[in-house]
Amino acid sequence: MDVLGKALLDYQHGKYIEDITTYMSMQGYEDEIIDSIALPYLFRSYDAMPMLEQQALNLCHGAVLDVGCGAGSHSLYLQEKRFEVTALDYSKGAIQTCTQRGIKKAIQANIFEFNNPQFDTLLLLMNGIGIAEKLKNLKPLLQHLKSLLLERGQILIDSSDIRYMFDEEDENDTLLLNDDNYYGEVQFKIEYQQEESELFGWLYVDFDTLKKVAISADLYCELVRNGQNNDYLARLTHCKCK
């Protein structure tokens, strides 16, 4: 069930009556954490984007692949700046929304099944790296993303270190820090107009862990900037050690 796609299309068609409700479960929390995603935020302009997103867009060069494009706000901005941009999302409704907003090239596909090595920049914003679901899947994902890059290409990723959500005693618990129980592994489901998605995994990764995994995938990883809410922007490129 394409719950996200339905919500995006409703907003695109002027049928905005409610936001998306999110339910998150994570290690150390007995109850679900309930929050919401305001639909207008997914259609925001460049000026309304967080600082890290703006900087990522300013760093783009060449042909760009916007992975997990959602409503296509990043792709639309880049297209308006005359970039050759491809918007990609697994959600059919998201891609229909992108097309209706005027994005010229929008593709519905699973990133793991997308094989077209022709990009100078890969964007994974709004914690797009979360599609790895678990820490053990992060290296294969980075290796696949690397295969889509041209020689001087770059991967721009923002994510968050969610360690702050745990009590101090939990922070020192090795069960939260090993590869089998990494504290950034959470589970989500979303609800819109009484329709619920299936439960899906999502990964938040701290920068030091991202850098370690990137090195193991033969990628150079640099911190571009820290945000104001335990988040950061990172840039990955082909390894400079060769």
Q: Write down the secondary-structure element order.
A: HEEHHEHEHEEHEHEEEHEE
SS elements, strand count = 12
Number of domains: 1
Q: Count of helical segments?
A: 8
* Average predicted local confidence, pLDDT: 93
Distance between the termini: 45 Å
CATH class: Alpha Beta
Q: How much β-strand is present in the residues?
A: 25-35%
Helix content: 25-40%
Q: How would you characterize this protein structure?
A:
With 242 residues, the protein is α/β, with parallel strands linked by helices. It has a single domain (3-238), classed as Vaccinia Virus protein VP39 (Rossmann fold, 3-Layer(aba) Sandwich), CATH 3.40.50.150. It contains 8 helices and 12 strands. It has a 7-stranded mixed sheet with strand order 5-4-3-6-7-12-11, with helices on both faces. Strands 1, 2, 8, 9 and 10 form a 5-stranded antiparallel sheet that branches. A hairpin with a 4-residue loop joins β11 and β12 (231-238). α1 packs parallel to α5 (92-100).
